[in-house]
Specification:
This protein has 217 residues and is an alpha+beta fold. Helix content is 26%, strand content 41%.
Length: 217
């Protein structure tokens, strides 16, 4: 996802504001996410949804007191109010002997987030998701004895998390995931039985064949 550098700059500025307002320490996390999902039942599409969102959370510590606030509004005015509210809440919070942030000496000096392979490049488009959902349900309904379907669904999502703290920590990572599922029924009347199957993976290329998922269901 874009804007990582700008996000870190804004988070560090927010932490500086918190210290200036009276916090001893603070940390903040910024989460951006995008998701896309489709669903179909009995061969007809029932859902096509896409959502995008972002949220910023701030934790401030004053001695052994802490407060956590969050906002989806990242304008300068809103962030200023966020800092004031967090510091005011922390001053009136009960003491927690276990709260705090890591000492700078405890932070990892080098860490390759990319080596974890948490996020696939690019985006799975809606046509591909529709293709998966359709193939999955069709395969399930083609099995002898299947009399009804509760539908199939396919989805993809990606999120990026950026975290920084007054102890000097600052890093960001992205994660993605795709899934396919279907649920069908066999038999009639009191002899009806229902079952399902699904698969999920970080990389969409690692998903099982939608036809296999449908037949297993």
């Amino acid at each position: 996802m874009p804007k990582t550098d700008m996000t870190l700059d804004r988070i560090n500025d927010l932490l500086a504001q918190a210290k200036k307002a009276g916090a001893d320490d603070a940390d903040a996390v910024y989460v951006e996410g995008t998701s896309l999902s489709v669903a179909q039942r009995l061969g007809k599409m029932e859902k096509l949804e896409r959502s995008e969102g972002a949220d910023l959370g701030l934790r401030v510590l004053i001695g052994k007191k802490q407060a956590v606030v969050s906002s989806s509004d990242t304008s300068n005015a809103a962030l200023g109010e966020l800092v004031e509210r967090a510091v005011a809440m922390a001053k009136n919070a009960p003491e927690d002997p276990y709260c705090g942030i890591a000492d700078p000496s405890e932070l990892a000096e080098t860490f390759n987030v990319e080596a974890l392979e948490l996020c696939e490049p690019g985006e799975v488009d809606q046509d591909k998701l529709i293709e998966w959902a359709s193939a999955c349900e069709e395969a399930a309904r083609s099995v002898e004895g299947i009399t009804n379907s509760e539908g199939s669904e396919a989805g993809w999502g990606r999120h990026q998390i950026t975290l920084a703290a007054t102890n000097g920590f600052a890093n960001s990572y992205a994660g993605s995931g795709s899934h396919i599922s279907v649920s069908v029924l066999a038999g009639t009347g009191t002899g009806m039985e229902r079952d399902y199957d699904y698969d999920s993976a970080v990389f969409s290329t690692d998903l099982r064949d939608p036809v296999d998922i449908g037949k297993k269901a």
